[in-house]
């Protein structure tokens, strides 16, 4: 028998201990969360309603919007609750569940961004065969495969973490539960869990990153072979929003997991970027940089105005 008291809950110290700053953060993050819900739901609705957007690129874009809704909703509601609460606690089981869904949705987004890069590569390098190659059956299979691979990854990592013992140290210098932030709270050997996390990260996230990298190498050489400036510009414009989303995802993700778990300001910024800011920005980036989406949004708004009259 080990001579320690096992804890049943963690205290998420969050972003600030100052009540006034907490109130300001609650208002700011609540507005961001509402904008995230509205932006992604609107994009999903526009893609669903407008027949001109019924192609693989927008199908994957709709899946990314749905995923952003899920990823943001895993952490933000609990964060908002803690900003108004004095206790700021979460049960160990609840913390593990949150860590599972953070891992699963983040892993799915990594796979989906890789799938979208391959889709753009096929569309630009083989435009005549694009419709035949990227058929609906293949697109559905790629989406389900992304979800399946990410959930399998989470099912490998989280059960290993569940076997960790947590004792005495309850205070987590974070606003959500992620595996790296739980290791300092454990009084047992974390090497097995850390090794599983490291191996899965190398295989999953860096594997997807390499797939994205080589897809864009192919896209780059294809664009160079296009003779007209207009053709090059059009080909590049179809990739710019995806490249921005990839930069946000991998930039914040790599910095978050490579930083020591010290509760520093930079670490909080990277975590907020990943779980709060990016899900809000993705639909804006896709809308502002895509003429077809902007045209579809204007068409839907006009129909709503006419219907109200």
Automatic annotation (TrEMBL):
The chain crosses the membrane at residues 20-46, 138-156, 202-224. GO terms for molecular function: G protein-coupled receptor activity; olfactory receptor activity. Keywords: Cell membrane, G-protein coupled receptor, Membrane, Olfaction, Receptor, Sensory transduction, Transducer, Transmembrane, Transmembrane helix. GO terms for cellular component: plasma membrane. Residues 39-309 form the G-protein coupled receptors family 1 profile domain. It is a multi-pass membrane protein. The keyword Membrane applies. Gene3D superfamilies: Rhodopsin 7-helix transmembrane proteins. It is found in: Cell membrane. Putative odorant or sperm cell receptor. This is Olfactory receptor. It comes from Delphinapterus leucas (Beluga whale).
């Amino acid at each position: 028998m080990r001579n320690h008291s096992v804890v049943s809950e963690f205290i998420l110290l969050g972003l600030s201990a100052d009540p006034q700053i907490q109130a300001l953060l609650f208002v700011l993050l609540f507005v961001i969360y509402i904008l995230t819900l509205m932006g992604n739901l609107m994009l999903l609705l526009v893609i669903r309603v407008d027949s001109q957007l019924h192609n693989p690129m927008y199908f994957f874009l709709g899946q990314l919007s749905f995923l952003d809704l899920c990823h943001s909703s895993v952490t933000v509601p609990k964060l908002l609750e803690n900003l108004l609460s004095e206790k700021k606690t979460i049960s160990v089981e609840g913390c593990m569940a949150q860590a599972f869904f953070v891992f699963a949705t983040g892993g799915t987004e990594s796979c989906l961004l890789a799938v979208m890069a391959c889709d753009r590569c096929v569309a630009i390098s083989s435009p005549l065969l694009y419709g035949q190659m990227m058929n609906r059956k293949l697109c559905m299979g790629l989406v389900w495969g992304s979800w399946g691979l990410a959930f399998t990854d989470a099912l490998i990592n989280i059960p290993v973490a569940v076997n960790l013992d947590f004792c005495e140290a309850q205070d987590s210098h974070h606003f959500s539960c992620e595996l790296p932030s739980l290791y300092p709270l454990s009084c047992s050997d974390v090497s097995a869990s850390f090794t599983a996390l490291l191996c899965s990260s190398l295989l999953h996230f860096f594997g997807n990153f390499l797939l994205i990298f080589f897809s864009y190498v192919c896209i780059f050489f294809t664009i160079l072979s296009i003779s007209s400036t207009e053709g090059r510009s059009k080909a590049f414009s179809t990739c710019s929003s995806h490249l921005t989303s990839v930069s946000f995802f991998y930039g914040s993700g790599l910095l978050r997991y490579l930083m020591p778990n010290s509760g520093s300001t930079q670490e909080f910024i990277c975590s907020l970027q990943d779980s709060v800011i990016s899900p809000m920005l993705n639909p804006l980036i896709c809308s502002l940089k895509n003429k077809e989406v902007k045209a579809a949004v204007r068409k839907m708004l006009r129909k709503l105005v006419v219907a109200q009259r």
